[in-house]
Amino acid sequence: MNAIPVTNLFNKPCYSQFDDQDWDILVHHWYPVARIQDVSIQPQQVMLLDVKLALYKTESGTIHLVRDICPHRGVPLTKGWVSGENIVCPYHGLHYNGEGKCVKIPAQPELTKISDRFSLTKFPVVEKYGLIWTSIFSRDPSKANFPVLDTWDMSDHQAILPPFVDIGGSSGRQLEGFIDVAHFAWVHHGSFADPDNQIVPKYTTERTDYGLHTEYVSNVSNYPHGIQDLAPEGFLWKRVFDVYPPFSAVLTVHFPEQGLLKILNACCPVSHNKTRLFVPLTRNFDTTGDLQAVYDFNAQIFAEDQDMVESQKPEELPLDISMEAHFEADRSSTTYRRILAECGLSKRYVV
């Protein structure tokens, strides 16, 4: 990829409310920004860490991600279109090729060599789990802390990619809510949990080279209300959480008869208090079942969580452990916060 080094081209957007230090750290990580199936030859704008990006594919099917601004006069490229393998700016018709190099200025067709100043800021594209992943500053995906959803390509597991969810809350708050096991009875009693089953058995959490690993066993069924009787009497549900900081986690739920459900919770930190959540999942049971039912159940659960996340104060996740009270069942949450703090992210936020 022959792109001009992006670190020399721009700093944090002036309208961004991220702390400067936090933004400088987060831009080196990788995040999902879109589902592959949603990318088209019509350029669309996606936002990551308050940076506006133009996502499109050319007529050959190659997917590109560039900063959504033409270096000539600052017009968003998402107002333009794709012509063959080029993206065209709508203001003066400048054509940019797959390397981000301007190859045509219609107003001066006699130009044989166009200045490198007419070059787009390109971002890397990695296709994984049905999603487009990228990083603002990192260019080496081999060093990325990608979450591991190892069943995605297994023939005996069904891969499912529900619609994304837009949440008016921070990615840290959302991810912590995903790994929280004490809220089931209070928040998810409308979908799968029992409001009278409130006790959280002790569980184990350990740090790993990728983040943290938690194993939680309880009698809280993962079946939706209405089919709870499918669980054998006395069955204990094992839930395993693997967290990949900063904002991804995989939940593995062990069902009866060797059933396995894996859910990837992958946050795109659109802004300091806005998250686009992608939830690829796999299962090795009911593989010919109604997909719409899966989408609906998934949407219900995350809508229940969303109501809590969007109302939390402070909006950002407080990494100073002393800022909020904690009890025993919060061990995964407090470990996650400590890991983020050790990465250098801010410990204090304004309420």
Indicate the topology:
Elements: H1 20-26, E1 31-35, E2 44-48, E3 51-57, E4 63-67, E5 81-83, E6 86-88, E7 95-96, E8 102-104, E9 126-128, E10 131-134, E11 158-160, E12 165-167, H2 171-179, H3 184-187, E13 204-207, E14 212-218, E15 237-244, E16 248-255, E17 259-271, E18 274-278, E19 281-283, H4 291-309, H5 331-342
Antiparallel strand pairs: 1-10, 2-3, 3-4, 5-6, 6-7, 7-8, 9-10, 11-19, 12-18, 13-14, 14-15, 15-16, 16-17, 17-18, 17-19
Q: Taking Cα atoms only, what radius of gyration do you get, to the nearest Å?
A: 22 Å
| Euclidean distance between termini CA atoms | 43 Å
Helix content: 10-25%
Q: State the total count of DSSP E strands.
A: 19
**Largest sheet composition:** 9 strands, antiparallel
Helices and strands: which structural class?
alpha+beta
Spatial shape: globular
Keywords:
alpha+beta; 9-stranded antiparallel beta sheet; 5 helices; disordered N terminus
Describe this structure in words.
- The protein has helices spanning 20-26, 171-179, 184-187, 291-309, 331-342, and strands spanning 31-35, 44-48, 51-57, 63-67, 81-83, 86-88, 95-96, 102-104, 126-128, 131-134, 158-160, 165-167, 204-207, 212-218, 237-244, 248-255, 259-271, 274-278, 281-283.
- Strands 11, 12, 13, 14, 15, 16, 17, 18 and 19 form a 9-stranded antiparallel beta sheet that branches.
- Residues 1-8 have low confidence and may be disordered.
- The protein starts with 19 loop residues before the first helix and ends in a 9-residue tail after the last helix.
- A hairpin with a 5-residue loop joins strand 3 (51-57) and strand 4 (63-67).
- The chain is α+β, with helices and mostly antiparallel strands and 351 residues long.
